[in-house]
């Protein structure tokens, strides 16, 4: 199906400080037709991180997501994130290689009672674990794990144009189908200080954001204003 037919939003010139991103929303509306794949010999798990602490979650999310410009969980209210992780309906399953966390899949069961939907909120591998057959196995594991529970009617996942190029074809091969695509502008987290300037090296840095105008009462009058000099923009200091 062509991108235009899928209701991709029309966007014009990219505003300063923003990045254009294409998000693909996908779903699987019937259980997998193939048996679960055996775990690759190098992997242990998945292990459910019960009551996953914020520190452990951020270690996984930040280490995996830095390369791919994952910023949502970094910028959200951290108390809210802690409460979300304490909810037994949000599951973080971690795989290990050589005794070290190698990747995780995050399953969100909160919509199951309402309409039978389960969401894969995140699937990702540590940089050193990519391309070793672990991702397709972890996704296959998650799909079977979800569909063995009663009352599941659909499993959703999404991917964006910042993600690893293997993600979308992998989801299609695993049995997900495209629902819709959405094109939008998102804040470049390297300008807002949410991520270090070295994050997402495959995504060119957005144009510098425009300066935020100060409120009228704070603006200097013509008499006390210093001579105007061009502002040198640098990304805000990164705050983990
Ligand atoms: C996406 C991800 C989970 C895939 O896992 P992986 O272990 O790297 O992938 P696998 O080794 O299992 O290979 C999966 C398939 O992708 C293919 N692939 C690898 N690199 C690819 C690329 N650059 N473009 C397209 N396909 C690619 C492989 O050939 C393989 O195909 P096959 O099953 O027919 O052999 C993993 O790369 C990852 O975590 N990336 C970073 C985080 C991310 O982007 N997550 C997805 C968020 S939606």
TrEMBL record:
Protein name: Acetyltransferase (GNAT) family protein
Keyword terms: Acyltransferase, Transferase
CDD domains: NAT_SF
UniProt cross-references to PROSITE patterns, sorted A to Z: GNAT (PS51186)
Region (Disordered): 187-240
Pfam families: Acetyltransf_1
Alphabetized GO MF terms: acyltransferase activity, transferring groups other than amino-acyl groups
Organism of origin: Nitrospirillum amazonense
Biased composition (Pro residues): 206-218
N-acetyltransferase domain location: 47-200
């Amino acid at each position: 199906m062509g991108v235009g037919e899928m209701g991709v939003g029309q966007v014009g010139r990219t505003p300063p400080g923003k990045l254009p991103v294409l998000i693909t929303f996908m779903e699987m509306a019937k259980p997998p037709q193939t048996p679960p794949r055996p775990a690759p010999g190098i992997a242990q798990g998945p292990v459910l991180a019960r009551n996953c602490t914020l520190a452990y979650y951020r270690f996984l999310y930040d280490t995996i997501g830095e390369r791919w410009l994952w910023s949502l969980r970094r910028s959200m209210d951290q108390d809210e994130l802690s409460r979300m992780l304490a909810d037994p309906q949000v599951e973080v399953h971690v795989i290990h290689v050589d005794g070290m966390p190698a990747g995780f899949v995050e399953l969100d069961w909160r919509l199951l009672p309402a309409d039978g939907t389960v969401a894969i909120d995140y699937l990702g591998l540590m940089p050193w674990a990519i391309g070793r057959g672990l991702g397709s196995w972890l996704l296959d594991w998650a799909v079977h794990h979800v569909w063995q529970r009663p009352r599941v009617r659909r499993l959703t996942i999404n991917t964006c144009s910042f993600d690893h190029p293997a993600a979308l074809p992998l989801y299609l091969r695993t049995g997900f189908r495209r629902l819709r695509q959405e094109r939008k502008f998102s804040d470049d987290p390297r300008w807002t200080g949410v991520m270090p300037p070295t994050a997402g090296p495959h995504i060119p840095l957005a144009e510098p954001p425009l300066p935020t105008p100060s409120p009228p009462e704070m603006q200097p009058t013509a008499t006390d204003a210093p001579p105007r000099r061009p502002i040198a923009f640098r990304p805000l200091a990164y705050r983990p």
